[in-house]
Write a structure and sequence with these properties.
Length: about 325
Amino acid sequence: MATRQGLQAQSFALAAESYREAVGGSMSPDSLRRLTEGWGEAIAGQREAEALRASGPAVVGESPRTRRVVAVEPITTPASGSTDGAMVLIRTEGWKEVKLVAISEVSVHEAGARARDAARPSRRDHDPLVTLGRHSYQAGLWDVDTFAPYQYAEGLRRGLDHCVRVTSTNDGAPWIERVTRLNFPEVPQIIDWSHAAQHVWTVAHAVYGEHTPVAQHWAETQLDALWEGHVAQVVQTLDRLHLVQAAYPPLVQQAPDYFRLRQKQMQYDQFRVKGWPIGSGVVESAANTVVHHRLKRPGRGWKRECAQAMLAALCELHSHRFERAWPA
């Protein structure tokens, strides 16, 4: 109970109060902190060993069917994996990026299952409803190459190697594309629709003015084309604007190549028909619920080793594996 409160409350002092109210006994905030971080440190050690084992070279006599990571609530339906970063303040180091992967079960419902708002029609009104659930997470203060085995191990833990279909929706960051391709080379990578749309709106506002009718019409026209999979058409339109000018910010200047180099990852018409997720909202939400809610607090920041322990523990809590992991 103390560890649960230490992971969920906004401070160890508040966690100690909640613990006292829950069990009738008392525990100092410092003792509760040591208990919570100590359990997280043990979990982090387990996860490190699993990540190394998952990505290690084959040993003599090892069967290809040997599961190097024990499956926990494996996904047997289609699955999705998304990766992102979240910033936390580390003492003496400043703001550092937490690498985070979220793996989810995908469910597809027939067209018409989506609740429609007649006053605010959406492009998705007539598409199948795609929902994601049974999420699990791995997060840590790792560089990209250190993060890679953890992403892979979490994929094995959820049984992605046996899923009928796996897709990966991300924001298009090069490091995310590289790691996902390394671990899951056959998994289609999809650019998150919201990020693609944001690039369109950024160009529209820079060229035609913010919140002007001309910018609105231009952006909606490009988004309609993008929605139907006409990425090459959008690239041609962007090229005609001659955006490589000092007057425009770098994001605008790079927009034509952003779409040109990611055309295969933006075939939204095909993805929608197949019932593939085109949004990375799960991992973006996890950045807040798993990382920021507990670790992004006012003050001097966390010691690196304490933050790493908390992240390991928070992932087990939010992956609904706390009770299973506790005896360890």
